[in-house]
Amino acid sequence: MLRPERDPDRPRRAERTRLERQRPQRPAWPTFKRVIGLHRPHLGVVALLIVVIVASALVGLGPAYLLQRIVDDALPTAAGGGSGSKLNALILAMVVLVAFGAFFGVVQSYLSNVIGQTVMFDLRRDLYRHLTGMSLRWFTSNRTGEVLSRVSNDVGSVQNAVSEALTGIIGNLIIVLSTFGLMLFLDWRLALFSVAFIPVFLFPARRVGNIQRELLGESQEQLANLNTRMHETLSVSGALLMKTFGRQQMEYDRFEETAWEIRRLNIRRAMVGRGFMVAMGLFTSLAPAIVYWYGGHRVLGGEASLGTVVATASLLGRMFQPVNQLMGINLTLISSLALFERIFDYLDLEQEIADRPGAVALTDVRGEVRFEDVTFGYRKDTPVLNGISFTIPPGKFGALVGHSGAGKTTTAYLLPRLYDVDGGRITIDGHDIRDVTLESLTASIAMVNQEPYLFHDTIRANLRYGAPGATDEEIVDACRAANIHDFIAGLPYGYDTIVGERGYRLSGGEKQRVSIARALLKDPAILVLDEATSSVDTHTERIIQDALAHLTRGRTVLAIAHRLSTILAADVILVLDHGRLVESGTHPELMARGGLYAALYNEQFADRAGAAAG
Ligand SMILES: Nc1ncnc2c1ncn2[C@@H]1O[C@H](COP(=O)(O)OP(=O)(O)O)[C@@H](O)[C@H]1O
Ligand SMILES: [Mg+2]
User: Within a 13 Å sphere around the CA of 548, how many CA atoms are in the beta-carbon half?
Assistant: First the structure.
């Protein structure tokens, strides 16, 4: 099959595999041990499965043994003899054994599926729990598509490895060993002769498995890339950007390239070691001939019975399938380590922000917020905040102002511990926020973000997000206070209107007010508002400001304001400049001082006056 035409000059991004880059491979054993460890919580089922496997392996041996008895005892030989009733009994026994074997087979496949799916469930759940506990820093530095891909694609692909490996290895080993045992019992010379070639195949299998593991790891990586592209371009914001910049063709090409690479890697993985498998298969077909040749000579020499040779040939045939399967499992297992490595990588990520041992719950919050000489940087070498100190007394209104990029949002993020300070400390009612439980800390703070986020759900469900127990009356009250009730009530489905992913069916100001109502419903002691009126016109601003007046009553507020007109009444205005607190005081004090705040204020006033005149 030919790949569609492409521009030969365009660089091929997704071209080289890890294999070709010669990256060293990780040792398989620790990962393997950990995979085994995943079964520990389910030892009961595993034990039951082993019992069933053993039973079915033993039952499976019966027919070959009965075959020997039929040929040697029940059927007439050249010397005469034979017995019809014996033949009937032996055949009946064979039928019964086969029926039992089939029954055990069904139970076995049920149990192995249960184990495989349960291990997958455990991994999926643990991974989700772990990732939801990761810090914001981690989310801002990882691609959503990549993360999703690991949780869905990688975990989704391990099921086979887990259930197949367990039943496959144990089951087949038991079959191989017991079969070989019976062969030895029948005629050990013939038995040893028949299996002498098998070990030769064990060595290449490992190498093939390792190559497959590399290729699988690489194709999962590309699948994650593909997921990322899809996630970015098929989301509302991404689609909007792609369309307005007319980049569909470019995105299509990029997608096609990665998808083609996945195709290439998967074909290669399927074909690696095919030659080796063919050799195995050839040997399987030739084996009976070898047994009859050597066994036949032993019969001619009077050293073995005909029944023994027939039974040995049938046992050997029975052994080849499991040996083949063991090889296959070995391959699946080694290659699937690549999946587990990717999953374990994520499970091993350190949760940067977590409860300290002995953390206590923050209760009866009065709401005194205090920053003491706080220093912080997103990267250790570039500080964003430098020696910030201020106090907002309980129930007071504090406002943060400053140029864009001054560090206002960053300051707000530190309070609910979205990031931890690098130096200094932040206290609420005198408790260092790192000494209290995250759950109680976030319960006492509500945040209205710069870019409010809504889930693809009804307005009602979005509002209840911070207060699952809120009654419908409380919801309406909050929306009235946020000046959004009339708008919602006027929608065709009212509060049951679906807002669309990220709230794209609402305008910026409507979204802001829904998120204010959401914060109101949570009824927190401390409220953080990040530029709640930045993206709206003056009319909407006034409406939102009214809403905020309700919201801020009786709580400690840290408000970040772009429009300084919204914070004239603040109890304390904190002026940030390049990560430093350069001024603080009330509006009249700061105006009298004639510093940065006065300059910012005059600038805006001039703008507005100009706009009004124009
Ligand atoms: N997640 C981040 N990683 C690295 N740097 C960041 C991140 N977020 C913000 N910054 C940087 O930190 C500085 C302060 O940003 P921010 O607090 O958002 O400013 P403001 O809200 O005052 O406009 C800016 O220089 C910005 O580029
Ligand atoms: Mg900001």
Answer: 27
pTM of the complete model: 0.80
- How many domains does the chain divide into? 2
Q: How far is the C-alpha of 233 from the C-alpha of 457, rounded, in Å? A: 21
b/e code 20-45 from CB counts within 10 Å (16+ = b): eeeeeeeebeebeeebeebbeebeee
- Closest-lying ligand to the alpha carbon of 406? 1
Residues with Cβ within 8 Å of 391's Cβ and at least 6 positions away in sequence, in order, are: 368, 369, 370, 371
- Alpha helix ranges (H) inside 464-583: 472-481, 485-489, 508-522, 538-552
Q: Are 175 and 324 in contact (CB under 8 A)?
A: no
State the helix-helix crossing angle for 508-522 and 472-481, rounded to 10 degrees. Answer: 130
For a ligand 1 pocket test, name from 374, 379, 384 the mutation site with the most ligand atoms within 8 angstroms of its C-beta.
384
Q: How far apart, in Å, are the Cα atoms of 557 and each of 392, 537, 584?
A: 8, 23, 16
The span from the CA of 503 to the CA of 599, in Å, is 36
Q: What angle do CA 84, 90, 96 make, to 5 degrees?
A: 135
Q: Which of 284, 317, 347 is the last residue of a domain?
A: 347
Decide: residue 591, CB within 10 A, 0-12 exposed, 13-18 middle, 19+ buried. Answer: middle
> Rounded to the nearest whole angstrom, what is the distance from the C-alpha of residue 238 to the centroid of ligand 1?
22
Instruction: Determine the distance separating the centroid of ligand 2 and the alpha carbon of 163, expressed in angstroms.
Output: 50
Which residue has a Cα nearest atom 10 of ligand 1? 378
| Cα 562 to ligand 1 centroid, rounded to whole Å | 15
User: Could you tell me if residue 522 is inside a domain?
Assistant: no
pLDDT along the chain (614 residues), means of 10: 49 45 69 89 91 84 81 75 82 88 89 89 94 92 87 83 74 84 88 78 74 88 90 86 90 93 91 78 78 89 86 82 79 84 92 91 93 94 94 94 94 95 95 95 91 89 91 92 90 89 77 89 90 70 74 85 83 95 95 93 75 47
The enclosing domain of 582 has a CATH number of 3.40.50.300
Q: Is 323 exposed, middle or buried (0-12, 13-18, 19+ CB in 10 A)?
A: buried
Q: Identify whether residues 147 and 218 lie together within a single domain.
A: yes
Which protein residue's CA is at the shortest distance from atom 20 of ligand 1?
Answer: 405
Does residue 581 sit within a domain? Answer: yes
Q: 147 and 61, same structural domain?
A: yes
User: Which ligand number lies closest to the CA of residue 384?
Assistant: 1
Q: Are residues 391 and 288 in the same domain?
A: no
Within-domain flag for 304: yes
Q: Which atom of ligand 1 is nearest to the CA of 400?
A: 22
| Residue among 282, 283, 279 nearest 205 (CA) | 279
Answer yes or no: do 332 and 430 share one domain. no
Atom 17 (ligand 1): residue with closest C-alpha? 407
Ligand 1 first shell, C-beta below 6 A: 140, 378, 384, 402, 404-410
Q: Quote the ligand 2 centre to 409 CA distance (angstroms).
A: 4
- Ligand with the closest atom to the CA of 535: 2
How far is the centre of ligand 2, averaged over its atoms, from the C-alpha of 403 (Å)?
9
| Closest residue by CA, ligand 1 atom 27 | 405
Q: How far is the CA of 577 from the centre of ligand 2 (A)?
A: 13
Domain identity same for 276 and 298: yes
Among 327, 347, 367, the domain boundary falls at: 347
Which atom of ligand 1 lies at the shortest distance from residue 136's CA? 1
User: What's the Rg (C-alpha) of the chain?
Assistant: 36
